[in-house]
Amino acid sequence: MHDLLYTFGKELGSKGSRRLWNHKGVVGALKKRTGAGSVRGIFLDMSELKEKLPLDRCTFTEMRNLRYLKFYSSRCHRECEADCKLNFPEGLDFPLDEVRYLFWLKFPLKKLPKDFNPRNLTDLNLSFSEIEEVWEGVKDTPKLKWVDLSHSSKLCNLTGLLNAESLQRLNLEGCMSLEELPREMKRMKSLVFLNMRGCTSLRVLPHMNLISMKTLILTNCSSLQTFQMVSTNLENLHLDGTAIGQLPTNMWKLQRLIVLNLKDCKMLVAVPECLGKLKALQELVLSGCSELKTFPIRIENMKSLQILLLDGTSITDMPKILQLNSSKVEDLPELRRGMDGISSLQRLCLSMNDMITNLRIDISLLRHLKLLDLKFCKNLTSIPLLPPNLEILDAHGCGKLKTLAMPMAILKHMEKGHASEALFITSFPGSEVPSWFNHRMIGSTLELKFPPHWCDNRLSTIVLCAVVAFQNEINSFSIECTCEFKNELGTCTRFSSILGGGWNEPRKIDSDHVFIGYTSCSHITKHVEGSQGHQKCVPTEASIKFKVIDGSGEIMNCGLSLVYEESNHVVIEGDSDGTSSGRALSVVESTMSSATRLLSVVLRYLWLGVVFFSVFGFARFYFH
């Protein structure tokens, strides 16, 4: 029905020559300028243009009723081509004052023309443009609510937006020449969202109190050394990858803060004790803060805390509540009260902590804990009891680990009569690849073609699946997957992964089984980033082959999914029919990290998962 209405709307608009979206019709109107006064909307897909289109500076002069203007690319939204395909060799006159929506990808000029009047403008998008400032001077923009200037690498001046007091969202991601924000931005009392991710030249934030702001993203602002409060109503604060050395002591005022991300703040040497007063905080990320040596926060008072990540820090004096070693009898009552205070934790990461040797029994009081990350805790020898609802225990690199309790989740399944003998290494009885795999094929081979930019820094995981038919099989077989990726420039990378099997002793399987495994993409992305085609807009061909080694089982079906990590969710690319379309489908909306969300999806299709082996030979334990 939506397609039908869309087609009907296009036909209706075309008859009156009031809205133009067919690229041939748009090009004709721009060149000839016939009937310009009746044009209200122009939508041009620039990927349809085979060559650059030079236009006269007076192209838009007669379009006095133009309200909607969109120059975009359906093939690639990135800056893969050096210049915009629309060329104005003599400059551009733009004497328009009725425009509500202006979307101009890769706008070719240093600023919007002086004669443009944005009094009715509501939505402005000039991403990947050549602008150095939005327009000359300050203009009245009483209706402007949304501005996207992302990846405009030459932008250095925002004074043109100072009268945009109704502005709600401002996206400045990747504006690498922007050194500061104007002090007058404090008048933007309606601003809810500010994204400055990757503004590598940003040095300081002005003093301001933006009372409506809920989300502030300063990720990878590598020149930012100090942070000061910009709003007491913040809910999401991302300072990861900045050069800040400490946080302000008035952070306790952020009583609505839900997410505080300080990942990879390499210069951070201390966090204030007052963070323990943030009653609404659900996620605290300190991963990779290598200079952080103390942790004075009383987390037992943070009743809402769900995610706590402390891996990659230099913390030596961990709070008692996080010292998971078996404790003295006289300390147990206090520690149990503390455990009750953090019972809302869903994910706890204490990896690379040499102080942990044996987990305390009262860790089982963390009844909501789903992921416990203890990787590379080199002195950990025993895990006598686990939380009742734990789904993921990451203990790879724990070379001294000898004792591992059976998870309560498995005990519950056994009490219900489920056998665990045939359920091993991410496998379960079945004859079909689960429907959430985006690429599925009958047989043992997948031949795929991925779109440009499929392997960017958001790619976090490749999930592999094989369905194997058995007939009273008794052997020590294993399932191997060989992957080869090759792009049009000749760059090629290969790797192999074991999806299942490989036991020391033969086991009997008398039904078809589904094997699911995942692999980190770091070795793939590093290879691609080092190639000459990393920034080029080229597709990639992939050949994925599965086979049974040392056994007579037959691969019946196979599947693959690419999983991408976004700022607040995980997406799986492609269509469910096995073709790649580049559309994104949200998998799980939660506050958990990408690994937890992904594996929650995987484990939905498993009865039990006992041991998950990664490509690099580390053991991980997953329970559900």
From TrEMBL:
<dbReference type="InterPro" id="IPR045344">
    <property type="entry name" value="C-JID"/>
</dbReference>
<feature type="transmembrane region" description="Helical">
    <location>
        <begin position="605"/>
        <end position="623"/>
    </location>
</feature>
<dbReference type="Pfam" id="PF20160">
    <property type="entry name" value="C-JID"/>
</dbReference>
<protein>
    <recommendedName>
        <fullName>C-JID domain-containing protein</fullName>
    </recommendedName>
</protein>
<keyword id="KW-0812">Transmembrane</keyword>
<dbReference type="Pfam" id="PF07725">
    <property type="entry name" value="LRR_3"/>
</dbReference>
<keyword id="KW-0677">Repeat</keyword>
<dbReference type="InterPro" id="IPR011713">
    <property type="entry name" value="Leu-rich_rpt_3"/>
</dbReference>
<keyword id="KW-0472">Membrane</keyword>
<dbReference type="InterPro" id="IPR032675">
    <property type="entry name" value="LRR_dom_sf"/>
</dbReference>
<dbReference type="GO" id="GO:0006952">
    <property type="term" value="P:defense response"/>
</dbReference>
<feature type="domain" description="C-JID">
    <location>
        <begin position="428"/>
        <end position="567"/>
    </location>
</feature>
<keyword id="KW-1133">Transmembrane helix</keyword>
<keyword id="KW-0433">Leucine-rich repeat</keyword>
<dbReference type="InterPro" id="IPR044974">
    <property type="entry name" value="Disease_R_plants"/>
</dbReference>
